[in-house]
């Protein structure tokens, strides 16, 4: 270690951090997200770092095609939540405001052809406690329980009046939801957890991903039959999963690549069904495009579904219709989208696996990683 130049050095030879060192103290990752193009993380200091593909400004820097190592995003601080589309990045700050950077209507500044570097505030939003996104659009949850969305509107994902595809460059309120405690955006749809443990979904319903027992879409939030006592949700490309209070994970939607963890790789699961083959109970659930993840209280992570480039971090590229143990230990949180997955440990260390296109894994290479490796700060 070069103690004069290495950002992980913390004041003495051999005293290294697995993240960054500032003022003699090791900083840890507080929150993070990954998209099909890039990854961003907010440290416990509130600073944001991004890496991967950056040609639309989604890394917070102009004119960067490829960033192999984390680089600080200027003009944003006190970040408590992050969400990424393929072309833009958005952050919720401690003061309840939302700031975005990158390009397109997902930036939320009123211009459908926006290009915003450095970050700019999304007008009209305050008291935001969570942000979420699909590949293209963004939604925000306010502390009053109401939901607002912007970006490319997919087939009712923004509620009534947005049945057809079109760009919405400023936040619009989703009707008929005012008691939400968590929201998860998938491809063309949203699912939201209500404060009574029930779940409502709306938008595109191809593959039955709304969990309603059929494939017809819904422009208004609709309760998912048979779901109660839910504590967390995850929405993907064609499937959805939920964590129940008793530690059981249920999934529904398209079975492609084993994404609902019932041992099969084709067909539809139109209603929520418990996953098979994993030793719960679980305390955390996450969903990738065609994959799923469940974490136990001891930090074991079980993964299933598409694994073409090592998204499941099991050391292989074999698709898994039943859960297998992922290599990271002491896992607290998982985020997966498109072609990579990242795992945050309980001690604030971030590791990632997957295709590593243009360095989105963050290990300063572009080599595919079939088991998660630490982000190199």
Describe this structure in words.
The protein has 377 residues and is mainly β. The chain has a single domain (28-374), classed as Methylamine Dehydrogenase, Chain H (7 Propeller), CATH 2.130.10.30. It has strands spanning 20-22, 25-27, 29-34, 38-43, 48-53, 66-72, 79-84, 88-93, 98-103, 115-121, 128-133, 138-142, 147-153, 166-173, 180-186, 189-194, 199-203, 218-223, 230-235, 239-244, 249-254, 268-274, 284-287, 291-295, 301-305, 320-325, 331-337, 340-345, 350-354, 369-374. The strands form 8 sheets. The protein has a 4-stranded antiparallel sheet, with no helix packed on it.
* Unreliable runs: none
| Structural class designation | mainly beta
How many individual domains?
Answer: 1
Distance between the termini: 13 Å
The helix tally amounts to 0
Overall 3D shape:
globular
Q: Assign the CATH architecture.
A: 7 Propeller
The residue fraction in helices comes out at under 10%
CATH class: Mainly Beta
Strand content: over 45%
